[in-house]
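@channel sequence for tomorrow's demo:
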Amino acid sequence: MKNLKKQSLLVLLLCLFIPGFCISQTTSPPVPVAVPMPTQQNKIIIDKIVEATHYKNYVIDFCLETINEAAQKEKWNDQKTVEITESINYKNFRDAVYNLFAFYNEIELENLLKTYKQDTAYQTTNVMITNDALGYNLEIFANDIVRGKYK
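C-alpha cells (generated this afternoon):
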C-alpha cells in the first residue's frame, strides 16, 4: 500500500512539472514594444506647435540650468562647461515630443496649433510643460548631456 501511495505521488508530480517544463522551452522571448510615432504630416504640425509654444527654447534653457548647476557643484572649468553646453541639440530630444503627440490625429493637432497661436496665456502653460512623462524625459535628457552622452 505504501508503494502505491509513493508511485501515485510520483506520477502526480511528474504530471505537474513536465508540461510546465515543456512549455517553458517553447515560449519565445518578449518582443520589444515599438514606440508610437506620429505620421510625417503630423510631425510637421507638431514642429509648428513647438515653435508656437517656444518649447524648443524651454528645453534648451532647462538643459543650460542643469549644466550650470552641475558645473558649480562639480567645479568644472570654463572649457568643460562650454563643451557640454555646445552639445545641447534639440533634435536629440525631438522624438520624445513626437511621442507625446503620437495619438493625436491631424485635426486635433491643427486645432491645438490654432489655440497655441491665438492664446498667449495658453502658450506658457502648454501640454508639453505640464506633462509629467515628458518632464521626466527632459530631466533624463539634460542629465545625459551633463554626463557627456551627446558630445
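heads up for whoever presents: The CA atoms of residues 2 and 122 lie 81 Å apart.
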